[in-house]
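pasting input
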Amino acid sequence: MRFGKSFFNGAVARSDVRRYWPALLIYFLPWVVALPLSLSQEQGYAEDSGVTVLYTLPFSVVMTCIIGCVLGAALMSYLTSPRAVQTLHALPLKRTAVLLTHFVTGFAMFTATNLLLVLLSVFATVQKVPWAALGIWLGLTELMGFFFLSLGFLASTLTGWLLAIPAVYALVQSAAAAVYALLHGIGSAFYYGYAPIYDLPDALLWLTPAVHLCDLCEDAVVWDYSGVTAVALSDRVAPETLAAVWVYAAVGVVLLALSCVLYALRRSESAGDAVAHRPLRPVVKYVGALGVGLAAGLLLHGIFDLDIIVAAAVCAVIACFVIEMLLKKTAKVFRTGWKSAAAVCVAVIAVCLCIRFDLTGYQTRVPAPDDVADVQINLRGRAGVYGNTYTDRETIDAALALHRQIVADWRENGERPAGENDVYFFFYVTYRLQNGATVSREYHSAISKGSEAESLANALCNTRAMQWHRVFGDLPMDKTPQLTGGYLSGWNRTTGDLHEVSLSAEQAQQFYAALLEDLNNGCFAGSVLEDEGPLTFDLELFSKDENFSGYIGYLTPSCAATVALLKTYGLTERDLFSE
Amino acid sequence: MLTTKNLVKTFEGFRALDGATMTVPQGAVYGLVGPNGAGKSTVIRHLTGVYRQDSGEVLLRGAPVWENPDAKRCIASIGDDWYYFPQASIAEMASVYAGVYPAFSRERYEKMKGVFPLNDRGMIRRMSKGMQKQAAFWLALCCMPEVLILDEPVDGLDPVMRRQVWSLLLDDVSQRGTTVLVSSHNLRELEDVCDHVGIMSRGKVLLERSLSELQDKTVKLQVVYRGEEPSLPPEVNVLHRSCVGRVHTYIVRGDREAILQRMAATDPLLLEAIPLTLEEIFIYEMGGEDYAVREIVL
């Protein structure tokens, strides 16, 4: 092992252990509190201390994430000092061997700390040692530690600046989410009708490992629902959590291999440089300046209402000079860096203008009717008219018509503030196209009474499918349910009276029939600009297999069948319609 | 033994080495001299495998040094700014060196405890600069290298320790045939220990020869004429001339005997050849490179 062409050198490893073992204290001490101490405290009343162990898994993500960065930075810190790097690289060892020696040593120290924690936990849990849970904890923590340590090493090979290592480490983990947030911000700032997606898409979630692993580890405990009460199991872990941890561990192997390649390519003279690899410097400069410029421009626009293009251009120029200063390690960059700054400024303005003038046609795009497979609608006006996903032609055409009208109104008048006769309404629509793609738009616009848009909005919320869903929820339209009961809860917003009726199977079936009759007669039609009736009902219908929730908002005297039935339940005309 | 061929290295657009070619013969004590910024330390970092050249070759016995542990095991080096692990003692550094240099001699390590008056269990960072340099020599010599590369090696050592260190090095050269490459600005000291010299300027090795050859090929003449200074024969390549009273001093490049023969033809009253010091050779050679001492009146 000592002198052969191996990838490990014991002398360097021993030196690493002697120098860097104290770094493990920042990992070990919090864990002593979280695991052995915690187990020793609850042993008197805990039903299963193994579950307590498994509940620490999200904490494990946080701690492995921290120690991955700390150990990576510590073990590779010599790369940030020209003196140190000259000595280490003059030793008769291949660079790959040096890096792998550091990595193996770091991982071994991490493993030893975990084993010590398990040992302490075993002693702390006197009554029943949760071997399975401790084994799961150790396995998952080791795999996550491997991944984060690889990431820490990768960050260390990318920069020659000790302080930049944690920054690169965090950036690598959050770049995808940051770019996504920036695009979302740009879309919201520039595009009329931009529909944000508030949750990170799955692919991006995988690129933010700390967050993703935290989410998965929070749901790692498996519950057994077979008994009277649900019981948390301590001898297994959710399969999706386990699978994800294995995937990240495999990615860790790839990252380690990438670190080896980057380390072999890295020049010794890059010690002390913010970006260690020359080809990456222009990428960092231009992409960084562009990203920081747009993000800071959006922020200033949001806070001070500055013109977004001017703010973004100024911020991009400043960012370009600052990055140039970091890369060249001097403040004297204005004479040599003005061309880059000018290029970035032009690029930012060009990007902003392309978006502002909507060269892609985002704002005016309305899909062709034949292209739409289904439509998801959320429509809210003065009254709450909530939507669902609809596949019927009537609703799809109504949604497209309203969408077209909103776009036409915007092209004609722009985004105008609400007047006296206007009402703000919210319209969110997602079309799933025949080719699988989706088109989403979200409008918060002022709509005038008597306008074309109002009539199209009303037409949309009063399609049969929309009405059905409003009244019956997810109850299928194409078959008569076999109801086993129901529950009706009405609230009169004028009087504040609450009316609750429990329905027997027969009454539920009768009520369903009455609602259906009125619905078929168009009695539950409403208007997005009108208030609902004074009395609104939450309706629950129970069938043998499932329950359905509905809502009656627009109850008028014309709903004869329903009103008649409600009166048999004791509700008076005054209860139903008095304002 | 140790060679560089057309070595080129550029830092951020600055060409630090511009086709440097040199050869250090086996068993030689090779002095690498040159003005500040000539590229001496950069060459040394290539020879120790720290830097990767942009182009050219760095070879030890014909094998490349870069990423070649077999070659690097034969080389020990002491940089101009020697690094040790923080918190480490000499003994701890010795175990690291012992772990990577197969020839590391524990026996020599113990013997050298008597040579260097240092506590090998004390932290190196608490030692003075000179003591740290001694520690560096201690460890480097224990690696039993075939090639020892030293960048400003005795900088910071007191006169007694300088002699002690040079004595150890020369013992190693005579007993084990160690090849030594030394970069230093202290030319008087180099002159005492080196048998080969390479002069660098602006990233190139201007000349490299054995010291005796160099001293034979450049002659310092002191000449006194009866009357006016006659015109010198055109074959005499005068690098520098000066005159104090009637005494003319010429630095002439060429074969000593041939130069004396030609100068005798000018009928001098006195003609004397004085051996040149390394410092003089350096100054006059660099004068040709536009790096002469300028007389500046402040």
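fyi The CA atoms of residues 108 and 128 of chain A lie 29 Å apart.
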